[in-house]
Each structure stands twice: as C-alpha cells, then as structure tokens.
C-alpha cells in the first residue's frame, strides 16, 4: 500500500495571537465566515434564536442573527421583563381566582345572614305569640307559675294532643288502634279530683 505524503493534511494550529497582520486579516475572514456558517447550522438544526456580533481588525461591525440580530439583542436585554410578565400573569390569575372565591364566600355569608335575620324575626314572633297566649316571657317562667294543678292540666292536654296526632296518623296510614291504650290513669299520679271533671 502506498503512503500519503506528509504535510498535505490539516495541521493543528497553536492558539496564540498571529503576529503577521496580513495573515491575521486572512484568518479572520476565513474563520468569521465559518463561525457564521456554524451559527446558522445551529439555528436551523436546533430551532434556536442566535446572534453573533464581531468587529473586524479595522473596526467594521459584522453580525449574524436568526431570526435577526436586533431581535436576539432585544430579547436578551429584556429577558427579565419576559420573566416579569410571566410572573405578572400568574399573579393576575391567582388574584382572579381568589377574588372569585371571596365573592362566592361573601355571597354565602350574605345568604346565611339573611337566614339568621329571618330566624330571629321568627323567634321574636313566636315569643310574642307565647307572651300573648300565656302572659309570660319565657317557657321556664310559665312552667314555674303553673303549680301542680296547672302542670297536671298541661300534661293532660299534651297527652290528648299526642292521642289526636296518633289517631290522625293512623287514619292516614289506614291502620286502626284501640283508644284504651292511650287513656291516662290520673288517679295514679295524684291528680286533684276536680281536675278529672275538665
């Protein structure tokens, strides 16, 4: 097999500043074109936005950008604003959620307050009715004022009310029951004799 002659292949370049000004200019021209080509490949293959800015030895600006250099520069300089806008969006979303939740809770509170006010009015009406029918402010005062005779009357009326309710419920359900089992034996509890005449 024949060997390739030495010296025609690529040589490793030592990385240090080129002293000859003409060689430096030629290397810059070749290398900056290669750099722009690699940047373009990176933008195309990876779909990234990229910007490269160089100044030649004479001070002339050279640039490559995808989609363009100004877009990439503005995005780079305003990256904090982009993050801030995202944070502001999240904050607005959370505030909106909290606002709707607070609105819903306030509506529930208003409904509960309205129910409470209605129940207070109902309680006042019941108390006025109780006062009008008994002459007393509270049920406890009324019970204390009855004495044994009044309590016996009240007990008898409550048992009679219970029997009536049970009779009506039996009539509605269609079953019949004996009235004897609901009769109260007032003699066993020491009721006054004149009470039985009521």
UniProtKB/TrEMBL annotation:
Superkingdom of this protein's organism: Eukaryota
Protein name (database record): Uncharacterized protein
Organism whose genome encodes this protein: Cichorium intybus
Organism placement in taxonomy: Eukaryota, Viridiplantae, Streptophyta, Embryophyta, Tracheophyta
